[in-house]
Design a protein that fits this description.
mainly beta, 5-stranded parallel β-sheet, 10% helix, 56% strand
Length: 190
């Protein structure tokens, strides 16, 4: 008899905790101009997130407009992660306008890694009825075994890109150094 109330309390707490973990941006405006994030030194990591929803993340009926954001990490094993309007873990972006202008992400050093995502849904991701515009966006990694990964307007992990427009002009993705790797994806579903 006493086990039933305890179970119901635990179930209620589980539901509340699960709901609190889900990231959601709805019916909102996210505007950022001139945001700068820097990390320097051995094993440094710079993470810049603007308009990001994680853990069953959803971005709906929202405008995310970013101008001149800069994210930099320098040093041995440095990592720079820049995410603008990204939804992860069953991520969904719907009925949303995303505009990124003059956005720069850089990682420099031995084994450096630069990752840039603009208007991207991951892990069973879906982008529906949305606009993703990226102008003058750059992602750079430099150094021995450096890697640069740039993804603009798309979805991955059984991803779906439907009824959406992706407009990318003047985007640059560069990896420089011995055995470096660069990959760029624009308007993709993978």
């Amino acid at each position: 008899m006493k086990a039933a109330p305890k179970l119901s309390v635990l179930a209620a707490l589980g539901i509340v905790f699960g709901a609190a973990m889900a990231g959601e941006i709805t019916d909102s405006g996210v505007f950022s101009t001139g945001t700068v994030n820097t990390s320097a030194g051995f094993l440094s990591t710079a993470r810049q997130n603007v308009g990001v929803a994680e853990q069953n993340g959803k971005i709906r009926n929202t405008a995310v407009i970013v101008n001149g954001a800069v994210n930099t990490s320098t040093g041995f094993l440095s990592t720079a992660n820049q995410s603008i309007a990204r939804a992860t873990q069953n991520g969904q972006i719907s009925q949303t306008a995303i505009v990124a202008q003059g956005v720069n992400n850089t990682a420099a050093g031995f084994l450096s890694n630069a990752n840039q995502e603009v208007g991207f849904a991951k892990d069973d991701g879906k982008v529906q009825g949305s606009f993703v515009g990226a102008t003058g966006v750059s992602n750079v990694a430099g150094g021995f075994l450096a890697s640069a990964h740039q993804q603009i307007g798309g979805a991955q992990g059984s991803g779906k890109l439907t009824n959406s427009t992706v407009l990318a002009t003047g985007q640059v993705n560069t990896a420089a150094g011995f055995l470096s790797t660069a990959d760029q994806s624009v308007g993709v579903a993978k």
